[in-house]
Design goal:
The protein is 31% helix and 20% strand. With 563 residues, it is of the alpha+beta class. The strands form 4 sheets. A 5-stranded mixed sheet has the order 2-1-10-5-6. A hairpin with a 5-residue loop joins strand 1 and strand 2. The chain binds ligand MTE and molybdenum atom. The site of molybdenum atom (MO) has 6 residues, from loops. Keywords: Membrane, Transmembrane, Transmembrane helix.
Length: 563
């Protein structure tokens, strides 16, 4: 395959363009093939997911914050799309070079393959088989590249007239069998390197026969379509093999200790966040590019580290334990003032404190590190998990098994702490250690090791416009595990006036509030603040989300029009 003798032939810009098309189509083929192989080795072994995972784990905190600020819960889709665009650009470059020498194609593809293999093999939970999708991608991309480069119309490479008779490297008719390498008249070196005779472009003027051009594009299009079919088929098969079907067969045990009944005055107006957030509306934040698929039958939780007795609990063991049911409002530390990375659900699970008591934390074990099957970790103060609050190893969310993306089969939920220090999804390990000895996932990325939720309040309605008259201003306020004592509203920087609280089942959830506002035409500014049960007023000082949660008063500008 050494084409070096022909590199003196000037390659016209047009040829490079064909090569770029071939390169992109080849990369697509590689990824499609990889998705098929990943059906067997698991979706997290697919190169895009593996490389994306490495990127997620290594981006500077500021970039991650910007991504969440920009794309919100779609940050993962944006990352995958970005990765694909970068790969497409690189593949186009490799393809453009490959028309000079196939060595570029081989080298470029191998380089990408190595990146994929390295990424897959170093993901938490990986085994040797995780190299296979990337290796298959290399084989697929090389085969597609080899095939497509041979199809590049000869005219475009300014081959000597002898080659250009039909304006194409492929004799008419020989292309009639699609999908077969038909460029028999053109030895690979001819089309790839510009023609065996050399002498460069002085033959027929290098215009490409439009028919040949169409044929090439059609072939490349077919290759991309085939790749897409393989990719989608792979994804589809992976989903069929996902745990959603297993999840559908899980029956939750009834609670031994049920959640309190809901107060009757909830959900006072339509535009306020509902007191209980539906599972499908519940925000989702995690680093998992491919949602971990954990079969409860093979799930286990190991409690170890600085404990008197190491414990391993299976799904069956867990289900035998008395279940507690509680409403707990979970919040993300990345939630901006006024943001919606917060939700309230009814969780069913086993008290974490009971499990810790059984294991017996040793002196100095001030941190409980929870580890997910995908290697993510969070660190929770041991004393918080033992202080009597309803920290749960949860299996149910609003009466259903945990949705897969919310941690099926088992996650942790701790009232009063941000999710990044407590709410481990797909949990499989609990290690007693100390804060001095171990930094959990987000800590070296610039976030605080401790993450108590800060008191906040939010205006849900109106957000922009209102009609003059009595307008019900409404929203939510939270101070988990402390409780909200008071919510106040200020109009146009006037005096603070108390809002009506609509009740909550415990201090571990948010509460809804309403405030009747006599709105007059014009532009107005509404602000809200909460006071917690200790009497502490929510701070006006504005702080960004990093390192330990945003503060400040939520403010909305409302344009009031005459009725
Ligand atoms: N395994 C795992 N668990 C995780 C995370 C993660 O990235 N991986 N993110 C945490 C963060 S930052 C938050 S805010 C909550 C969000 O839980 P939810 O997606 O169910 O709302 O999950 C926590 N648990
Ligand atoms: Mo979070």
């Amino acid at each position: 395959m050494a084409m070096t003798t022909e590199t003196s032939v000037p390659v016209r810009a047009g040829t490079a363009r064909w090569g770029a098309v071939a390169g992109v189509a080849s990369a697509a083929t590689g990824l499609g093939v990889a998705e098929l192989v990943a059906v067997l080795t698991g979706p997290r072994s697919a190169p895009v997911v593996a490389v994306g995972g490495v990127v997620v784990d290594h981006v500077p905190a500021a970039v991650k914050d910007a991504a969440i600020a920009l794309f919100g819960v779609h940050d993962k889709t944006a990352l995958i799309a970005g990765t694909m665009l970068l790969l497409a650009a690189a593949a186009a470059g490799v393809g453009a070079l490959a028309v000079r020498s196939l060595a570029y194609a081989v080298g470029g593809t191998a380089a990408f393959g190595l990146i994929g293999v390295a990424a897959a093999l170093t993901r938490p939970g990986a085994n040797a088989a995780w190299a296979l999708p990337s290796l298959a991608a290399v084989a697929g991309a090389l085969a597609a590249g080899w095939f497509l480069l041979r199809q590049i119309p000869a005219g475009s490479t300014a081959t000597p007239g002898s080659m250009a008779t039909p304006g194409s490297t492929a004799a008419p008719g020989s292309t009639a069998a699609p999908g077969i390498a038909t460029a028999t008249t053109a030895a690979p070196d001819a089309s790839v390197a510009g023609g065996p005779a050399g002498g460069g472009g002085r033959g027929a003027p290098g215009r490409v026969d439009p028919e040949a051009r169409r044929r090439f594009l059609r072939t490349a299009g077919l290759v991309v379509a085939g790749a897409a079919v393989a990719g989608y088929a792979g994804r589809w098969l992976s989903t069929r093999l996902s745990v959603s079907e297993v999840r559908a067969t899980v029956t939750l045990p009834p609670p031994a200790d049920a959640a309190p009944a809901l107060p009757s005055r909830l959900d006072p107006v339509p535009d306020v966040a509902t007191y209980v957030t539906k599972n499908e509306d519940f925000y989702r934040i995690d680093t998992a590019l491919s949602v971990p698929q954990v079969d409860p039958e093979s799930w286990s939780l190991r409690i170890h580290g600085r404990v008197e007795r190491e414990l391993t609990i299976t799904w069956a063991d867990l289900l035998k334990r008395p279940m507690v049911e509680r409403y707990v409002t979970l919040a993300c530390v990345s939630n901006e003032v006024g943001g919606d990375l917060i939700g309230n659900a009814r969780w069913l699970g086993v008290p974490v404190r009971d499990l810790l008591e059984e294991a017996g934390p040793l002196a100095g074990a001030d941190q409980v590190v929870s580890r997910s099957v995908d290697g993510w970790t969070c660190g929770t103060p041991t004393e918080v998990l033992r202080d009597g609050r309803d920290a749960l190893l949860a299996i149910g969310m609003n009466g259903e098994p945990l949705p897969v993306e919310h941690g099926f089969p088992v996650r942790m939920v701790v009232p009063g702490l941000y999710g990044y220090v407590s709410a481990c999804k797909w949990i499989t390990e609990i290690e007693l250690t100390s804060f001095a000895d171990f930094d959990a996932y987000w800590v070296p990325r610039g976030w605080s090791a401790r993450g108590p939720i800060k008191t906040q309040s939010r205006i849900d309605t109106p957000r922009r416009k209102a009609t003059a008259g009595t307008v019900t201003v409404a929203g939510v306020a939270w101070a988990q595990h402390v409780g909200v004592a008071k919510v106040e509203v200020s109009v146009d920087d006037g005096p603070w006036a108390a809002a009506t609280l609509h009740g909550s089942v415990s201090d571990d959830t948010w509460c809804q509030w309403t405030f009747p506002w006599a709105a007059t035409p014009g532009e107005h500014r509404l602000r809200v603040r909460a006071t917690d049960a200790t009497g502490a007023v929510q701070t006006e000082a504005e702080a960004p989300v990093a390192p330990d949660g945003a503060t400040g008063w939520h403010t909305v500008k409302v344009e009031v029009t005459a009725p």
